[in-house]
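User: Once you have settled down, look closely at the record that follows, taking as long as you need, and be ready to discuss the fold:
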Amino acid sequence: MFVGQEVTVQERTLEDANEDVVYLLDEGDVVAKSPLGAVQDSILVVNSDLYKTGTRKPEDVELPAVIDGLANTPFRLRGHPTSDKEKLLLITVSRYIERLALETDGGTHRASFQRLSRINDEQGTRAVYERLADTDTETHVYGMPDWTPPPEFDVTMHGGWNEDFRTSWFVVHVPADSSRPHAALVAIEVESGTWDGLWTYDTDTVQQLNRYIEREL
């Protein structure tokens, strides 16, 4: 998962360990740890079809502490057909942010799909956004306008053809209560099937992203 990234993976044998554990270190200090099984179940043995079909729902998405702790770390990840696994990291975090929006039931949620038809084409994606539309969360969707949500689908559509619509992938959650958790993922398709992205829980950064998208898109 982390080959070629700003994350170095090393393996060690610890005499007092009775299970395989993943530790996240920052300058030698342990900042998070998770059982390897939790990392496997959340990302390593998952495929994107589980999300597209709706087999794995947002409430089923758990981010192990060592993955959650990689917030603000930049990644360059490749999608299909070059890699079937790399991009799944960003897909999983996207679904986790959608889960936060559903649980908060309020505030603002913004998401980009490059092509708006993706919402309709992917059964699982449509189900998530139909659920968001039924909450008190103000939901905005962005992308090239090759599909229009029907009137009963209570989301605000933003369609366009410029680079921001064609190459950006973002999921931004700003709760109504500023003291609640904020979250955002932003990725840019730098070449076909290759994405530069990161996610963050920093309140000021998330709010700045939200204002930029509201103003520019």
